């Protein structure tokens, strides 16, 4: 559970930083602000999945053991 929460949090933070600070960067294929939004959504989904999988297994301490 903890690994999923940490990975989701890191993904969300990277997406937030891209969304906030990469607006002036020009690359030919896509904008980095849109990539930031996508990363924030993926990070939030990963955090939610970590909470869900931890609570549904009864993993309240984050050890992964039952």
How does this model look, in words?
This protein is elongated. It is mainly alpha-helical and 66 residues long. It has two helices and no strands. Helix 1 runs antiparallel to helix 2. Helix content is 68%, strand content 0%.
List the helices and strands and how they pair.
Blueprint: H1 2-21, H2 32-56
Helix pairs in contact: 1-2
The major beta sheet can be summarized as:
none
Count of distinct strands: 0
The ordered H/E elements are HH
Report Rg: 15 Å
- Number of distinct helices: 2
- Helical residue percent band: 55-70%
Terminal Cα span: 12 Å
Strand content: under 5%
Shape: elongated
Q: Would you tell me the structural class of the helices and strands?
A: mainly alpha
User: What's the pLDDT, averaged over the residues?
Assistant: 86
| Quaternary organization | single chain
- Contiguous low-pLDDT stretches (5 residues minimum) are none
What's the short version?
The protein is mainly alpha-helical. The protein has helices at 2-21, 32-56.
Q: Top keywords for this entry?
A:
66 residues; mainly alpha; 0% strand
């Amino acid at each position: 559970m903890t690994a999923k929460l940490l990975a989701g949090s890191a993904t969300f933070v990277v997406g937030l930083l891209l969304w906030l600070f990469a607006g002036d960067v020009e690359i030919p294929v896509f904008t980095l602000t849109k990539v930031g939004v996508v990363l924030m959504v993926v990070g939030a989904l990963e955090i939610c999945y970590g909470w869900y999988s931890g609570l549904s297994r009864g993993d309240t301490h984050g050890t992964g053991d039952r």
